[in-house]
Amino acid sequence: MQRTTVTVDGNEAAANVAYGLSEVVAIYPITPASTMGELADAWSAASRRNVFGSVPRVVEMQSEGGAAGAMHGALQAGALATSFTASQGLLLMLPNMFKIAGELTPAVLHVAARTIATHALSIFGDHSDVMSARTTGWAMLSSASVQEAQDMAAVAHATTLETRVPFLHFFDGFRTSHEIAKIELLDPEDLVALVDMRAIHEHRTRSLNPEHPVLRGSAQNPDVFFQAREAANSFHDAVPGVLDRVLERFAKITGRKYATYETYGSPDAERVVIVMGSAYGVVQEAVDHLIARGQKVALVQVRLFRPFDVRAFVAALPKTVRRIAVLDRTKEPGAAGEPLYQDVITALAEGWKGERLPEVIGGRFGLSSKEFTPAMAIAVFDELARKEMLRHFTVGIVDDVTHLSLSFDRELDAAIERARAGEVRCVFYGLGSDGTVGANKNSVKIVGEETPLFAQGYFVYDSRKAGAVTVSHLRFSPRPIRSSCLIQRAGFVACHQFHFLERMNVLGEADLGATFLLNSPYGPADVWSKLPVEVQRRIIDLKLRLFVVDADRIAREAGLGGRINTVMQTCFFALSDVLPREEAIARIKGAIEKSYGSRGRSLLEKNFAAVDAALGGMSEVEIPSKVAGDLHTISAFARSQGTDVEPFLERVTARILAGEGDLLPVSALPVDGTFPTGTSRYEKRGIAREIPIWDADLCIQCGLCPLVCPHAAIRMKPYREMELAGAPAGFQSRPWTGKEFPHQNMTIQVAPDDCTGCGICVEVCPARSKSVAKHKAIDMRPRLEHLERERANFEFFLKLPEVDRATVETATVKGSQALEPLFEFSGACAGCGETPYLKLLTQIFGDRIVVANATGCSSIFGGNLPTTPWAKNASGRGPAWANSLFEDNAEFGFGIRLALDHQEARARELLGELAAQMPEGLVCALIDAGQHGEKGLAEQRTLLADLRHRLVRIATPAAHELLHLSEHLLPRQVWIVGGDGWAYDIGFGGLDHVLSSDRDVNVLVLDTGVYSNTGGQASKATPRGAVAKFAAGGKQLRRKDLGLLATSYGHVYVAQIAIGANPKQTIEVLHEAAAYKGPSLILAYSQCIAHGIEMSTSMSHQRDATNSGFWPLFRFDPRRARAGQHPFQLDSKKPRVAFKDFALQEGRFASLQHSDPKASAELLQLAQSDIEEQWRLYEQMAGLERGPATQEGTT
Amino acid sequence: MKPDLSTRYLGLDLCSPLVASASPITGDVDVLRRLEAMGVGAVVMPSLFEEQIEHEESQMLRMQETGANSFGEAHDFFPALQNYNSGPDAYLKKIEAARKAVSIPVIASLNGSSAGGWVHHGKRMADAGASALELNIYWVPIDPAETGADVEQRYVDLVAWMSEAVRIPLCVKIAPAFSAPLSFALRLERAGAEGLVLFNRMLRPDLDLEKLELVPKLELSDSHESRVPLQWIGLLRQHTRISLAASSGVHAAADALKLLLVGADVVMATSSLLRRGPGHVRTILDGMTTWMEAKDYASVNQMRGSMSHQNCPDPTAYERANYMRTLMSYTSDVF
What is the DSSP letter of A482? Predict the structure, then answer.
């Protein structure tokens, strides 16, 4: 029977089965597993039924720990329950996993295996998470491909029911979870045939039921615990046998045969590699290559890792094997070997019946999705052939420190690829925003679902959110595609953005004679000399065929704006040999109809028009025999001429920026994850099409534009007129008009290569021309027209001396914006609502803050390599930043505070001890100063220099100790920063505890109302009526009033702010929170692309959010209570805009009106009532008197 | 015996010549029921604006695609929309609901200016059960290279396309701003229009002096505005047999009567119903009946067109002299 095929990614393949065989699904977002939960939630919202005919209940919990707890409970009450997770999420589930297994409860957890954070977080794939779960008692079943992710998911669900042993089913994060591939679909009938209904009934019979009460989860004593633990042995022992029977049943149903330990290669192999996960396909290719060259090699793929079936594993090994290399995709420092290696050794020791025990070596590979290719696998087989083998090795990197790495021949990969007849390999370079990946996913689906060909798509993203570059790797083949690695040599390369040619090696994968499609504003006659010479040289050397199309023009004319995807996709199909041209065009149109048909006729027609115009607009370029012109590629590492940079940056950061991070040896990297700050300034990305240009004559010097800029890409600086000497010709300067800096000049300056073009600055600019109303003091203008001048201007601007902080009134908009930002040029989205707060914070307090940053958007744009926006001033001072985890950030920051307090106290103590040896007054001055603003801080620094100077000359242990601790006599602020997912949900318990303390910590919640980083899942901050992932039908309940909860303590400074609604209040709040000697909590309204708004208008959204009462501004200051005043102050006026009028300007609310108008109307009405009720409460609170809190910091 | 108020419009039998024209209230089923009870002859649903549909479609797409497929941790930032109702979907449901709720004809209204999508929406409205379709053609020709002839041709083409595409009766609502309304009306008839609605009221932007922004503003009409359709229907009646609907300024029985007398088959009220509610239908119809009784008119059919340019005692009053006399009366007062 012909089976249905679909083209899906690994997450969807697994989720489809999990949903079909479950009744309760407890979810929580975490990369790269989030998609599984999202799909389950969306299916449930659409009332899709499972194979038993009911609609599963899908619930989002506050953390993975919560999800595991809910799953545990659901299992105990007799439901079929599942969950999805990865990495840290799995770690949070471990306690429940021990319980679930200990209680012999059938369950399946699907894991998109991801790196555990150690010296750094990584969202990418390896087995360090699942290996942490190997002691839980769960069976562990590994999938190697998208097809297996589906099939093993089904096998796991069926086997757990029959064995009562819970199953952790895992596949490689990203490589499998995000790879799109054509697979044979399991339909509901297959799943019904696979599961044993009797086992389901037995599971239900065992459940908690007052009609037949039992007790489970007792506390046991030394007399019986041990025996009870052993009592379950036979169930675990039975797993391999039952699994084999299920696999046989599966093969009968589907025709696909799987073994728990799968052997591939020569039956008489002498050298064998053992591997688990997606590397299977890669090693298969290596084995084929070596066998074709007469070598006796094989591999064994481990599917069943727990319980490790010694008998079956040993049986799977060729009897002829002499040497074995075990590949582990994880690292366990200090262990005798990695887990799979240890199990293999143990299995051989226990089960090998042959004459001579094979020699075993173990190697690490593929950590954090490091590429693993056939050439690397061949290097492993080669190692097995060497006389003296490395007992432990690594492959895929260059280890020049401990010399464990195997070298490999990259050319082999190209040769192996080229040898595959009929395979078409294509690589596409695009921008996230131009739709390249979407179009390529579409192409893979077209080919996969509508032709007999096999298709594979894998997509590489950079870590930037604005202007992100994407690289798509597509394979099409008449045979199943095993290559679970990036393409080395492509016959088709497309560059969807002309400007990439300048900084990126887009022809790195181009094979000899490949076709190169370039989106070019220049036609075939003109384009050649516009290409960098290096690109021309490569085109000539590789004998490429070059085609150009002006996709931007065609898309624009078709009404598609910057979405060039349809044009480029059409050209791709026309040029590649995947499908005949006519058929391809028809299928593209079919796919467009499918994608847009339900979303609107106009979109359909615009895309059809783009398809039709694309072919006519494409031309082949005649390749000259010589290079022409004088354009050259430029380094991605931008350093100003004549300036010094830290050698580390040249050696490491510059290479990572150049896309050469894979080539860096072990010795190049820090041993403990410590990196220099202030590095984003070396990454000039130039992603804006338009940038703000200043009209100095119109400007009223209000400071709003730098205040709201998310990327510190427009700045204001006062300076003395004499500093203008040597200014570039186009540099604008005007006298400072306020009283703050008399007799000084000022300039508003754009950073033309760092601006993302969001336009918020222009939207907030209040100064308009009287004669041409559309002209403001800053207008968006084409970047390229102004680039040269503004580059020179910005460089000069940076060299102008910074204002003397001691002279600045930092609590005003103008004053704060005269200060140097120490958070600049982040990779955050254009228009990000979080970054302006961080930038402002660094302007006011940047040289004295330590930041504890919860995982999320702010940790990614703040700390994702290659560069960081956290910067230093000219004295080398600036924020010290660290990210611990998602769930522990409040506690992490709290710990930092404890340490700082302790060290400060010790320093003061030592200072007292040494007072006699100091000049009179110095000690007192040091102890008293530093607390009085910028001036005090400057004085303290001077005193400190004096102190250190003296301490050096005192040869006592106390003086020596104080010398090291003396910097702690400077005031240090601890800022605990994170999003609402952290503060409201996963980290709430810790946050609550920290707020209940008396320590001087400042918590800044960048509240977008969703889990922004993982794609906009609902949190408890999500407003009622808003659509979000996990709330596809609109959030039903009101958001948590975290501010109100915090005020209940009485001693916590609490404020709610919105920089666009009341910037002055925002600045005052930051000052007050910093000055308050106890815990402070600030909730900062942050717009997000997940709100569905035009980001340039975000400040007006902030105003409306406040004016509607949705986001009232307030302060609760315990100091006021102490002074006999009302501690709670409302800083915004009574709601004067209907919530509906605010909400329906945002896609998150408006989309529900489209999909479910009735629910939308009801929810908006309820949300209005929430606001009115909250406002009444707040008004009453503003009139409440409270006794002085007694918990203010003793620090 | 009471005079017979029934009339025919677009081939449909109407119990009275008063039609509730397209406005926000005609989308509400309860209001439609009340209008029917008050004796309205037919209702025109609120206009489905092509421009708005396109805007919404592109906005929803933008929302779905912003940030999508750009970043490793998130494919996108919104859940896939389930049961997404685009503008037309919701409109079609409204037509179905209206047809179920009332037995009087329900006329769908489509406001747009382009060929492709328009015809598609028109077909779907017909399929949803609309009794007739009113095309509200309206756009602002901002290209100085576009001539009056170009604009007229665009109207004619649109009507021809739609007429070919839909099987239900088709009428066209136009603005009065044409150089030669009579010849243009006849061209529309030849293109396939089975009725004309005279006239559309133009949406004129206003200026917000605080914000220095242009803001859209639509003010409700007054009775005096009925003089525009009065003149042109009076002039047109003798040249065509297709249905003529008078729209603009129908506030009282007197307005309705005048328009019927000059040749309208129906009169359409919007502003007065928005101001006074569905009960105002009865007031107008009662006023008409009283006048007709007093003047011994047996039916609307009898009086329709009796004061048209062709039938009135002094046709020159429709022409230039009218203008001159008006001016003279003014000048004598002021100076």
Answer: -
Q: Over A889-948, what HEC string results? A: HHHHHHHHHHHHHHHHHHHHHHHHHCHHHCCCCHHHHHHHCCCCHHHHHHHHHHHHHHHH
Helix residue ranges, H only, A1034-1124: 1042-1047, 1063-1075, 1098-1107, 1118-1122
Q: What pLDDT does A929 receive?
A: 66
- Does residue A1060 carry a pLDDT above 90? yes
Integer Cα distance of A1163 and A1171 in angstroms = 12
Contact A42 B79 (CB under 8 A): yes
- The residue of B51, B63, B83, B119 whose CB has the most chain A CBs within 10 angstroms, and thus the best one to mutate to test that interface, is B63
Closest CA in chain A for residue B119: A601
Residue B69, chain A, CB below 8 Å: the answer is yes
Confidence of residue B51 (pLDDT cuts 50, 70, 90): confident
pLDDT tens digits, A894-936: 999 999 999 999 999 999 999 999 998 899 889 876 566 888 8
Report the mean per-residue pLDDT for chain A. Answer: 95
What is d(CA B54, CA B87) in angstroms, rounded to the nearest whole number? 9
Among A122, A461, A1154, which would you mutate to test the B interface (most chain B Cβ atoms within 10 Å of its Cβ)?
A1154
Query: Alpha carbon of A1025 to those of A528, A1151, A1155, A1159, B82: distances in Å?
Result: 54, 10, 12, 8, 15
Pinpoint the alpha helices (H) of chain B: 29-38, 50-65, 87-101, 116-127, 148-165, 181-191, 227-236, 253-262, 271-276, 279-294, 300-303, 320-334
Q: How far is A465 from chain B (nearest CA, A)?
A: 6
Q: CA–CA distance from A295 to each of A270, A289, A384, A579 (Å)? A: 9, 9, 12, 37
Kindly report, residue by residue over B89-103, the tens digit of the pLDDT.
Answer: 888 999 999 999 999
Give me the interface pTM, i.e. the ipTM: 0.90
Per-residue pLDDT reduced to its tens digit, A1111-1167: 999 999 999 999 989 999 999 999 999 999 999 999 999 999 888 889 999 999 999
A613, containing H or E segment = helix A601-616
Residue B85 has a pLDDT of 61
Q: Shortest Cα distance from B10 to chain A (angstroms)?
A: 29
CB–CB contacts below 8 A, A to B: 148
The pTM score is 0.93
Instruction: Give the gap in angstroms from C-alpha A49 to the nearest C-alpha of chain B.
Output: 15
> Is the CB of residue A705 less than 8 Å from the CB of residue A761?
yes
Q: Which of B263, B244, B250 is nearest to B306 (CA)?
A: B263
Distances (CA, A) of A619 to A496, A549, A616: 15, 7, 8
A41 part of contact set with chain B, CB < 8 Å: yes
Amino acid B288: pLDDT: 97
> Stretch A995-1019: mean pLDDT, rounded?
97
List CB contacts (< 8 A) between A1028 and chain B.
Answer: 78-79
Nearest CB neighbour to A602, from listed B57, B73, B90: B57
Burial pattern B251-278, b for ≥16 Cβ within 10 A else e, equals bbbebbbbbbbbbbbbbbbbbbbeeeeb
CB-CB neighbors (< 8 A) of B71 in chain A = 432, 461, 465, 468
Chain A residue numbers touching B70 (CB-CB < 8 A): 431-433, 437, 461, 465, 468, 470
CB–CB of B191/B153 below 8 Å?
A: no
Q: Do B74 and A459 touch (CB under 8 A)?
A: no
Q: Is the pLDDT of residue B59 over 90?
A: no
DSSP A1104-1127: HHHHTTSS--EEE-HHHHHTTS-S
**Active-site positions of A?**
31, 64, 114, 1013
